[in-house]
Structures are given as structure tokens and as C-alpha cells.
């Protein structure tokens, strides 16, 4: 690798320093740059250094004078920043990476990395839905670079896991890994081991390279000094290639998808405790480690590729957010061009970001998202845009050095038009969120941002071709990395109100052109296959047609694009096919592809739902999509609710904040966390997941509930909602319309937010939508 294993920031004698791990050793160095921000005028603040610099101002691309204030620590900077300070919210590590792009390559990890792959099994009493930290570990399987899996386990009658944990720690110290690899081990396995060690009075400091205590909680959930924790679940959650191809993101489903040859018959989770001390449990535990290794081989090369490509430490590549990615990607361009971001979108474009808005109203109009028809359709096709927004940025040369919002004009439905002169294009973009036409002018030259996006899209095309030619799923993963750089690394930041490098003209222009492209695709599909369009999503259009022809669709779509914009737009269309699909409302539907049933939208698959609701939705979905009767399913859930096991009534909630940070101290998260603390001494902390049941007395921790306590009226009401959603709408002929900007997955059946339905209940027209 060309970069270090990991880097953390530390405070030493009131100075912010960098603690770097590479080749098994730790170095602490002074960072080449102090924490700093800019201001357009002199400020009365305590600082360690002040200088005057000339920078290109992002708001108007003019060279201006700025004051640069430097501080000892980020804390000092934060105490001094205000509305008059710029670039004051960039993380210290990323600030150093932007200003000194080769800094981290000086501390490269040149030695071969030592890996520890492992998996844990835990005892679960019959009265519990899931085990807690009270329950012992019964088996731990592991291996290192040689991939020869070992296993330590408890005998059936052994009620203490102390010797098992001691054995694992002994092996861990011998291996001395640089990278600890597991599947959900940051959320479960490692915190479990640490907590069980604590309860057995076992010192957990040997887990770190410098004999310090591992830390759980915070942004990345878990950290062990000198070692990286690679949770493959993070990679599968971000892998768009899995969407529609796996029933869930569990270890077994994903590893099977990537070709893992299943030899060991999986044990049911509720029955694992019955196999304590048996060969079956040992082989099952080892099998999970082998599955973990198989997924490691899919994703790891992509991660090291990302670290070397961005020149960031490996731990940052593992935990990289789209915000951090965009700071690095755009920050490099700004450094090369001496650009300063004077404020953010919210301050530079108050007409968009500071106007009075209703709750949930977007800052500006986003994608075309609506449903035209509801019900069951066979077949279902999806015309899927290929990186539409980045392609628009690249083709139309949208960039801070080319693009300006000239003015706002009164809103006019269908008012989109383009004016051209010798030097510029001017786009008149109707925005129904702003209720204005936004007039955007673009200079006829290649912008630096559009050129960067073009580079990322070229990389994506290269890896995508390799994947299609060779079937390499590693190439597919790398293709997705390039896509994320183009989307999240550049376009995604442009419309954010508080992102330091956001630039609203690019976002407004891009989404405006995107809406026109979507309308053209809808028009092409309706002309080729009248009445075919079902639902329009952010990234494509669902339709139903017999004897459809992909080449014909692409030909007429490209022809329509060129006619509309007087230029060729490099926007590809892929057609995905499904045997059948059921559409409930915008962005909420389910599809059948082969043996897989794919649920989409919170109304269909919210993780907080109880098993009764989840199973009912899946049972109805499978029956409908396979053309089977559903009466027996309805009867079972409506009339026999008392027959379901207690575990099926459990719902899940997770703590997203510290207990004291919740404004509503009576909310479910706080209530359940306090019950767990009182009855089981489980300390409330960020990331804790709890299971609870709606009882006659209120919301109660699952472990405290008896069957007779359940509020069956509450669960019957939820069942009735699902039956209404999926049964009564089976043969609806009257479609509804709804508009939503953004993802839309915050709609829930229990929410007060419901789609708007036309009073006359007539089919929707595009003119109504616009």
C-alpha cells in the first residue's frame, strides 16, 4: 500500500498532532497545518497566527483578499468561528490531506498486513428473542492469513465462558493482527467479547497494540488502538449491485450470491443453543468464518484501491462517508485553483435555503417521482438511468467556474427553455418547490468540476466493461466506487445547505435538466407502448409492456435528448426485467425476479416492524407475485393472532443519541433503555438495540413481557393496515399521484405523512405533476 494503516488525531501539550500506525509501529508527528479558517475581514479572536492571503472567491469566482486565522486545536477554532468565518467545519485530518496531498504517503504500510478473521456464537435462553450481554459465548472460530480455521468452544454443561475467552485472547495476542475482519463484528461480536470479558474480570487491554482499552461508541462504533476493524457488513450495505439480487444483507444470503459453495447446512438461529459442545456447532461456526473470508475477497481490493487513489489512511477509507469523500475530491480541485469557499449554500443562496418552508418541503425541486398506476403488473420493466446526474454535470459543463444563477423569474408551468449566444447557454428552469423559474447561465468552456466527473465516469465505464466481460465482482465493486465518487464525491455535495464546498447553481441546474430527461423518457415509453408507465423513480421509470425492445427505446430516447438540448447527451439506459410487480405508492413496491422477492420502501420493509408485519407483507407479496390465493393468509393473521409466538410481536429500537440528549424523555428509545438499565443493568449508550412489545400497559422491554400482556388490539390494527395496503388495492383501476423530492423512504404506514390523492381520483397527467 502507498498509505498508512491508520491515523488518529491527538492533543499533546495543547497542540493537535497526528498519531500514525504503519508497519507495526506508532509515530506521533506535528501536523503540517494548524486548524484554521478564513474571514473576509479582521476579527477580534485569540489565535496563534494571522496572515493575509489572496484567494478566488467561490461565490463569484473573483480573486479577493482574506484573513487566515490559525489555532492550536480544533476546539479553539470551534470556539472562535461565526457566520463571518469560512471553511471552519472541515475535519482536521481531511484539512491536512487537502492541503498536503502527499502527506500520508510518507508513512506507507509496506509490510504485508496480518489479518484475523473471526465469528462468535452465543447462548440464547428460550425465554429471550435475542441474547444479551448476560448470556455466555459458546463458540469462537478464527483464522489468520493462512485461512486455516480454528475453533474454541464450550462443552454442553459448562456455564462459564471465562476459559474460552482467555483462550481466544491468548491466540489473538500471538497473531497480533493489523486488521480484524468480521461480519457485523463492530455492532455485535467485538462489543460482546469485551462485555463478557468485563463480566469475567478479564483485562481487555491486550486487544490493542499499545495496551490501552478498546473504545466502543462514537462515529465509527468501535476502535482498537493500532488495529483496524473491518466490518464487511458496512461494505454490503453500500453495495448497490446487491439491490434486487439478494433477499437480505445477511452473511449467508450475500455470500451465496457471490458464489460461496454451501456445504454445511445452516442452523436455525433459535436452535443454535441446542448444539452447545457439538461438532455441528463447530462446523457451523467455522463455515461462517469461511463465508466472511469469501466476502473479504470481494471487497478488500476495492478498499485498498480507494485508499491509494485518495491518498488517505486505510482506516479512513473503511469509514469514508460521502461527505468526507466530497471534501477530499472537491478540496483537491479548490487547492489546485486557489479557491476559497466563502460561506455555504445556505448563506450564499438565501432565496433557496432560507425561505420559509413547510415541514418536509425541499429546498429546491428534485427528481420526478410519482406513481401513475397502482396494483399488480406482469411483466415489469425498469428503464434505469446510468449515472444520470453526473452525466449531466459532465455534458453540460456545470461547474463553479462556468455556472451562475442570474436571477429568478415568476413561475410558469412548462416554462423550461434554452437560450444560446456566442459565449453562453442560458437555462430557464421551472422549480415548483421555489415557485420560480431559476435562470442559470453557463459559459461555453469545460469546467473543472465537469471534467472531474467525466474522468470518474470514464473509470466507471472501464471497470463496468471488465465486469461484464469477465464476470469479476471485484470489478463491479470498483465500478461502484467510481460511481460513488462521481455522485457523492461531486454532485451530491453541490446541493447541500451546510456543506463547505456546496455550490447550488450546479445542483439546481443538474436536477432541472434531469427532470426534462425523465419527462422525455416517459414520453418515449408512452409513445412506443401506450399506457405502459407505472411508476417514476429517482433513477428510472417502471413500465409494463409485451414485446419491448431495448435498442428501440434507447434509440428514440437519445434522439429526443439531442432534439431537446441541441447536443448529444451521454446518458445510457439499462433495461431491468422482472416477472411481476406490485406497486402501492411512489417508491413503495415489491418485485419478483427469479426466486427473489424484492421489497422497496419503508412501507414495505421498515426494520423497526415486528415479525408479524414483516412476515405478513412477505407472505402476501410472495402469494400475489406468484399468482396464488391470499384468503388463507388473511384468515391466519386476522383471526389467529393469539397463536403467534411472543417473539413475533417484538419491535426494535436503537439509541441514536446519549440518554440525556433526547428532548422527549418519554419517547420509546428512552423508556426502553431505562427499563433495560433497571432490570438487566444494561448501560444506555449510542448504538444499543432493544426489543420491545406493545402491551396493555404501554411499550415494554421484550424480556419483561408475558403473552397475556400483549395489546392485541394494537397489532390487529397494524395487520388491518397491511391488508388494506396489499389486499384492497389488488385490482385498483383508479391511479393516484404523489410528489416527493429526494429518497422518500421516510414514509411509513404509522406516519402522519400520506400521499396526496386527487379529489376527482382521476388518472394523473404530467401537466398536473409539473
How are the elements arranged and paired?
Layout: E1 6-12, E2 15-22, E3 25-30, E4 36-39, E5 49-57, E6 62-70, H1 74-80, E7 85-86, H2 92-99, E8 115-122, E9 137-143, E10 150-153, H3 162-175, E11 179-182, H4 185-199, E12 215-216, E13 222-223, E14 228-231, H5 232-238, H6 251-257, H7 279-310, H8 314-318, H9 322-336, E15 339-340, H10 345-348, H11 350-353, E16 370-371, E17 375-377, E18 380-386, H12 388-395, E19 403-410, E20 417-420, E21 424-431, E22 436-443, H13 448-470, H14 473-494, H15 504-528, E23 533-537, E24 540-543, H16 550-565, E25 572-578, E26 580-585, E27 588-593, E28 596-600, H17 602-605, H18 611-625, H19 631-639, E29 651-654, H20 668-680, E30 689-695, E31 698-701, H21 712-726, H22 766-769
Parallel strand pairs: 5-15, 8-11, 11-14
Antiparallel strand pairs: 1-2, 2-3, 4-6, 4-7, 5-6, 8-9, 9-10, 12-13, 16-23, 17-26, 18-24, 18-25, 19-22, 20-21, 21-22, 23-24, 26-27, 27-28, 29-30, 30-31
Commentary on this structure:
By secondary structure, the protein is α+β, with helices and mostly antiparallel strands. The chain has three domains: 6-109, DNA Polymerase, chain B, domain 1 (DNA Polymerase, Chain A, domain 1, 2-Layer Sandwich), CATH 3.30.342; 115-310, 2-Layer Sandwich (Nucleotidyltransferase, domain 5), CATH 3.30.420; 344-582, Palm domain of DNA polymerase. Helices cover 35% and strands 22% of the residues. The strands form eight sheets. A five-stranded mixed sheet has the order 7-4-6-5-15, with helices on one face. The protein has a five-stranded mixed sheet with strand order 10-9-8-11-14, with helices on both faces. The two termini are 51 Å apart.
